Amino acid sequence: MSAPNAALTQEGGAVVLDPVRSAVWRAAVSRSSVELKSFFRNRQSLVFTLLLPVVLLVVLGSIFSGTVPGTHTDFKQMFIAGIIACGVMSVSFNGLAISIAIERDTGMIRRLASSPMPKSAYFIGKVARVAVTGTLETLLLLAVGVLAFGLPLPSTAARWETLVWVLLLGAVACTLLAVAFSSLIPNARSASAIVTLPFLVLQFISGVFFPYSQLPSWMQTVAALFPLKWMTQGLRSVFLPGDFARVEPAGVWELDRVALVLAAWCLAGLALSFLTFRWRGPNVR
C-alpha cells in the first residue's frame, strides 16, 4: 500500500478515511515541509552540512595524485568513494544532531510535544529531511566526481544495488545515532563543536583520506567499531576495480560483514534513541 493510501480503510465495502492515520499523515507531510524549508533557508546548514563535503572533494581531489601503493587504482577514486560516505554521514548525523540539540535547547521540541501534532510526525519530518538532503548530497558528489575527476560509475547492476543498500543502511544508522547523540549536547552553543569532533576523527581513521590498510592497527581497530569505516569499505567495492580488494585488511570486500555491522548499528541506534531521547532540554522550563 502506498503511503497516501495508508490512511484509507475499508468499511462496509466503501473506502473511508481513517481519521487517526489521516491526522498523522497530514502532520507528517506538514512537518516534513517545515524541516526541508528550514534546512534550505539556513545558510549555515547549506554550507557546513551540504556543501562542505563537496568543497573538500574539489580541493583535496585537486591536490592528491598518483595511484594507491600496491595497486593501479587512481588515488582520487579511493578518496571520492570515502567522501561520498562522509557526505551521507554529514547530513544524517552532523546536521540532524545539531538541529535537534538547537530545537531542544530553544524549547521548540517541548512546544511541539505539547501541541496536538502527533509526536511521530516530528521524527517522520527528520527522516524526510535526511532522505532528501542525503540523496541530493550523493548526487552532487557523484556529479563532481564524474565530471571533474573522471570517477567511473558502477559498471554492473550488482554494484548499483550495493551502492543503494550501503547508503540506505548507513543513513539509517547515522540518523538514529544522531537522535541518541543529541542527548549528550548540553546547549545549542556547543552543538556544532561537540558533533564535529567525532565526525572529523572518524574521517581520518576510517580510510577516507588515506588507504585504510596503511593506518596503524589500533586506528583500524577503533574505526571498525563505527559505521563510517564500513560505509567507506562498501562504497570502495562499488567504485573501485575488483582487484583493489587485495589491499583491504581481509583481502576481500567483506560485503556480508558490511551489511551485518551497519544493520547492527541501526538496531543499536534505535535502542539508544528510545532510551536517551528527551522532549525537554535542561535549560527549558
TrEMBL record:
Chain ranges passing through the membrane: 46-66, 78-102, 123-151, 163-181, 193-212, 258-277
Subcellular location: Cell membrane; Membrane
Source taxon at top rank: Bacteria
Membrane topology: Multi-pass membrane protein
Domain ABC transmembrane type-2: residue ranges: 44-280
Coiled coil: none
Keywords associated with the record: Cell membrane, Membrane, Transmembrane, Transmembrane helix, Transport
UniProt keyword Cell membrane, yes or no: yes
Alphabetized Pfam families for the sequence: ABC2_membrane
InterPro entries (alphabetical): ABC2_TM, ABC2_TM_bact-type, Nod_factor_ABC_transporter
Family affiliation: Belongs to the ABC-2 integral membrane protein family.
PANTHER family for the chain: NODULATION PROTEIN J
Protein name: Transport permease protein
Organism field: Microbispora maris
